[in-house]
Design goal:
- This protein has 171 residues and is an alpha+beta fold.
- 30% of the residues lie in helices and 29% in strands.
- A hairpin with an 8-residue loop joins strand 3 and strand 4.
- The chain starts with 7 loop residues before the first strand and ends in a 14-residue tail after the last helix.
Length: 171
């Protein structure tokens, strides 16, 4: 276990037990891929048949202190651990614009479909916002696919604005 994975990042009482946010481990990768593939869009992009690309990405994230891959567990009462039910990646980026402001990039935010609407996403994003402030970031940015209208509403309820048009180029 690396120093990144030494302790829980955040815990909170929720229906069904305790929500514990912690650094992801390699052992979490199958659960993360499952969460990423948990809708029609993700199912077309993600597959657990070959874990090697995910392992390479995990190693790169783990090696870079500017990146954090987190998982959330739902720990039942009396248990020490629980299943992985949520995830996100948080990256800290320096920038020249906005007078040299640091920004954070929030990506891959997922909560198990059966637990959506119970406050877990709000807890995770709230922690990520505070962690970004602690790192001196003046802006948090994220993208969400235009087809994910429920996610758009979720982020708007948390204070995010749809201020830009995002574009991507597959390489």
């Amino acid at each position: 276990m690396t120093s990144k994975q030494a302790a829980a990042l955040f815990t909170a009482g929720v229906d069904g037990g305790t929500f514990r946010l912690r650094h992801a481990t390699r052992a979490d990768l199958p659960a993360l891929v499952h969460l990423l593939a948990d809708d029609a869009l993700g199912a077309g992009r993600e597959t657990a048949r070959d874990m090697e690309p995910y392992e390479r990405a995990f190693d790169a994230i783990e090696a870079d202190p500017a990146h954090l891959l987190a998982v959330g567990e739902l720990v039942p009462p009396g248990a020490e651990a629980g299943p992985v039910v949520a995830t996100f990646q948080l990256s800290f980026l320096p920038g020249i614009s906005r007078q040299g402001a640091w920004r954070s990039q929030l990506e891959g935010v997922r909560v198990a479909a059966s637990l959506r609407g119970q406050g877990i996403g709000k807890l995770m994003v709230g922690w990520a916002v505070q962690e970004s402030r602690n790192h001196g970031c003046r802006l948090m940015q994220l993208t969400t696919h235009k087809s994910r209208t429920a996610a758009h509403r979720f982020y708007e309820q948390l204070g995010f604005e749809a201020s830009h048009v995002g574009m991507k180029l597959e390489l």
